[in-house]
Amino acid sequence: MGFPANGGASGEKPLKFLIYGRTGWIGGLLGSLCRAQGIDFEYGSGRLENRASLETDIAEVKPTHVFNAAGVTGRPNVDWCETNKVETIRANVVGTLTLADVCRERGIIVVNFATGCIFEYDSGHPLGSGIGFKEEDSPNFIGSFYSKTKAMVEDLLRNYDNVCTLRVRMPISSDLSNPRNFITKISRYEKVVDIPNSMTILDELLPISIEMAKRNLTGIWNFTNPGVVSHNEILAMYKEYIDSNFTWKNFTLEEQAKVIVAPRSNNELDAGKLSKEFPELLPIKESLIKYVFKPNQKVKA
Asked: What is the pTM of this model?
């Protein structure tokens, strides 16, 4: 293979990133980060499921690394995938595998933004226990078709030694106007459940994904901040920092099930592997305050 061993440095060749997912939230943020860091990059124009178009992109761009932030999550949410199964497979399974395969032939590492919504609390990982799912654990949640496709492709990608799979969960950013932001979503819901979960603070973790590419890291990574935070804890912070008049109502998982098509994943991921590689990584609640709530603070301290 043309890429260094896992964890090897990139050497002297200047970085050139090819990013898929230009119109997506994470893809857009990656481009902004590259500009800020002075990293040469281009967005892919090919469709992931079209092998020839990917080969053309790579031949023209000649990237050192490829980032995949494309795919289908469904609009307005994952319930869309339940009635658009072929489209979901085409993007999330066929497309992702094709990109990994094309890049492997050329010795190029793919940083693949995947999901951690493929697990749910169980007897071995009880809610509130602090025992999180690890990278080598097999998915146990296939309640939604979206999660089913993501678990399927993660298992297949384990065989590709050029892929760095990042398990993102309930992504949050400092842009509280973005409808994809988990905080924005739950602040607009009529009612919310209250369950501790692992989550991903993009402002802190996306720069780490770029550093992971520079280090040529591969394999599966739980790409979340250490620890868990609940819906109510986040909304209490929102009330404290953003809107002191904010109120919300809770409902149970059973009540939630009546207003959604597919069940949702709730879990804790063990972020120990990522924390060992990046010791500066903040616990979820500290990261929320530093990167999200303090910069947006409207309520006077």
From this structure: 0.94
